[in-house]
Structure formats: C-alpha cells, structure tokens
Design brief:
By secondary structure, the chain is an alpha/beta fold. It has 12 helices and 14 strands.
Length: 389
C-alpha cells in the first residue's frame, strides 16, 4: 500500500483523483490552500454544482469508505516550514502535484493575476522539489502539466511525448544525435509557468536524482466520477464561467439554459481532450509505473482524442437544438490549427479511454439542468482578454 499526498486535492482534478485513489486502497493525504474557493469569492464566480467545505467533503467520504482521507489546509508557497513538518510526518511514497492556478484566461486578466499565477505555480513546484531534497525524502512526484506547453500552431508531424530527437552539426562537420525537451510555445502566462516547470523538473531529476513524471494533459471534460456520485456532498466542480469553464462544459451549461453556444472566432482551434474518469486512471497508471532515480523526467501526453471547438459545438447543438453563436475570440491564437498528438505511453499501459463521440452527453446536460437556478448569466461571456481592450 502506498502513502500518497495530493497537493491541490480540493480542486477540479485533485478531488476526484483523491477519492479514486482512496477507493483503490491507497493512504491519501490532501494538502490544499483553498485558493480556488477564494478566487470564487473574490471574483464572484461559482461552480454550477454546489461544493461542500473541504472538511465536510472529507467527513462524508470517511463515513462512506473503508479507507480514510486526511486533509491539511496549507499554502506550500507561504507556509513552507509547516508543509515540511507534514512531509516529515507523512513521508509520502508518491506526491501528486495539482497545486497550481489552472486557468489560462485567469492568468491573462491583469497584472495582478499574471503575477499571482507565476508566484504561485513556480513557487509551489520549486518549494516542493527543494524541500524533498532538503529533507531527503524519496517520493515519486507526479505533476499535472498541460498540452499547452507545445503551443497550438499547425505542424506536419505528430507531437511527441515531451522529447524531440535532433541532429546537431559539430565543428568537424560530424552530426550528433540527441534528445531535447520539445520546444515550448506557451500561449498564456499559465502555459508559461507549466513550460518553466519542465526546466525545473529537468534540473532536479538530473542534479538530485528526483523521480518525476510530468503529465501533459488535454482539456478535461465531464464532471463526476463513480466516487463523487456516491453523495451529493462529494460532487465535483462544474465551472462554466469565461475564465475557468472548459469548453465542452461551457457548451453543456449554455445548452441547458437555452443560451447560444459561444464559439470563439471560427471554432477551428483544435484541442486535445480527456474525460475526468480517464484523468484518474492515468494518475493510477503513473503511480504503478514510476520514474526511477537517475532517470530523466518521464513525460506522458495525457490525452485521448482531439476535436475542433466548432465540432464540439455542433455535437451539443445537434443533441439539444441550441444554436451556435460565433463570438469575438478574446485569446491571441491562430484562427485555426491542426493537432496530431502522440499518446502511446498510456495506450501502451492499457488505458481504455472514454471518447466524446461514444459518450452520451445527456448525463452532463441533466446535471446542468438540475442546478440551473445557480447559473449567473453575467459570467458566461469572456472575462479575460489576451490584449488590452
């Protein structure tokens, strides 16, 4: 049995992953600074689904499950000594790092959000790694990164899993082949921090032999898992606002209230996707197949399929009869792009993915309808812009 610490375990991905691993029999400790809840309060956002306090969430789970979850409210950037004390007490075998501000639009809102995103995301990553070295704790770190580090320009090749083989010509004219990190092309401050994470991981794996797996995840769709469905107080977040709402979830909420589906620009932007269930399964596979000491950072593309924004809108429109409304794109990005992504690592480990094309959307639409009275229509439109308006 492994002892697992989930940083950011109160969040959209962290919470269902914590429950999933607990049900699998792992000893789970959540660490969270509740920053996502504070952002809701400060910016007047809200999850479409009602979210119980972390204390209540954990209490409900512990009353239903044979495997108990522990939690600690700690800001690992500002309360490093307290966090290190916890590390020494828990001595985790695995640390899953979700403790980063996760919204690209939010990171572009203004100077305040840009600075916060960099300080929080880079600070949490570096404090974690440096503390592990300082305390001599040999934990396998699993980090949730993003496909966005690769950028979204069209290429004529398949994007590899983290590394690119190149040939470099020496002074003698002889070519030497080596593998480098795939060149990053961040499209937002958020993606910039994830790109910087890669260099920090590379250094600590090389210099201190830390064991690190970096998961470049696509856009997550879906809300609940088998575990979060066990009690309404365990329900997961359903973000629909212009900053935190992922594209398919936004469309599903809009369809529930009869609002035209807001497609940015032409909708020709191609993105990689994964269901929240498969996020949990990928984390488990990464735990079961850890990086080794002295090994370079393991990088998996945590995606299962790609779609254009417009094709998703058409699927939801056909299912619900709601019209599509092209909207000025608030982002600074290509009008259209292709995206061909390698995801052989998780496929090779046996991941059987849930695909958008094969999945009925009725469950998500019914969820949106159930909580329709919680919708704030004023936060549906884009809230953050890549360039000053």
């Amino acid at each position: 049995m492994k002892n697992i610490m989930v940083l950011g375990g109160d969040g959209f991905c962290g919470w269902p992953v914590a429950l999933f691993l607990s049900e699998k029999g792992y000893e789970v400790t959540i660490v969270d600074n509740l920053s996502r809840r504070k952002i809701d309060n400060n910016y007047h956002f809200n999850s479409l689904t009602p979210i119980a306090s972390l204390e209540d969430r954990v209490s409900v789970w512990n009353s239903l499950s044979a495997h108990k979850i522990k939690f600690n409210i700690i800001d690992i950037v500002k309360e490093r000594e307290i966090f290190e004390d916890l590390l020494l007490r828990v001595k985790p075998d695995v640390i899953i790092h979700f403790a980063e501000q996760r919204s690209a639009p939010f990171s572009m809102k203004s100077d305040v959000e840009r600075v916060y995103t960099v300080e929080n995301n880079i600070g949490s990553t570096h404090h974690l790694l440096s503390s592990l070295v300082k305390l001599d704790i040999d934990a396998h770190i699993i980090h949730l990164g993003t496909m966005g580090v690769y950028g979204y320009s069209s290429t004529e090749w398949e994007i590899p899993e983290g590394y690119l083989s190149v040939q470099v010509e020496g002074r003698s004219g002889k070519y030497t082949e080596r593998e480098i990190l795939y060149p990053t092309s961040p499209g937002s401050v958020y993606h910039l921090t994830k790109s910087m994470d890669q260099l920090i991981f590379q250094y600590y794996a090389s210099n201190y032999q830390l064991r690190i797996t970096d998961l470049h995840q696509g856009v997550v769709w879906g809300t609940n898992t088998k575990q979060t469905n066990r009690d309404e107080r365990l329900i997961n977040r359903f973000d629909y606002d212009g900053d935190y709402g992922t594209v398919l979830n936004r469309f599903l909420m809009q369809s529930a209230i009869g609002h035209p589906l807001t497609v940015y620009g032409t909708g020709g932007q191609t993105r990689a996707f994964i269901h929240i269930d498969d996020t949990c399964k990928c984390i488990e596979l990464a735990i079961e197949n850890p990086a080794k000491s002295g090994e370079r950072v393991k990088i998996f593309n945590q995606v299962t399929e790609t779609h254009t924004v417009l094709s998703l809108a058409k699927k939801v429109s056909e299912a619900t009869g709601v019209s599509i409304q092209p909207t000025e794109n608030p982002r600074n990005e290509m009008v259209e792009n292709e995206l061909d992504v390698c995801h052989e690592c998780f496929d090779g480990l046996g991941l059987k993915a849930k695909k958008v094309a094969d999945a009925p959307l009725n469950t998500e639409i019914e969820l949106a309808v159930k909580y329709i009275d919680r919708v704030d229509k004023s936060i549906i439109k884009p809230l953050s812009f890549w360039k000053s308006k």
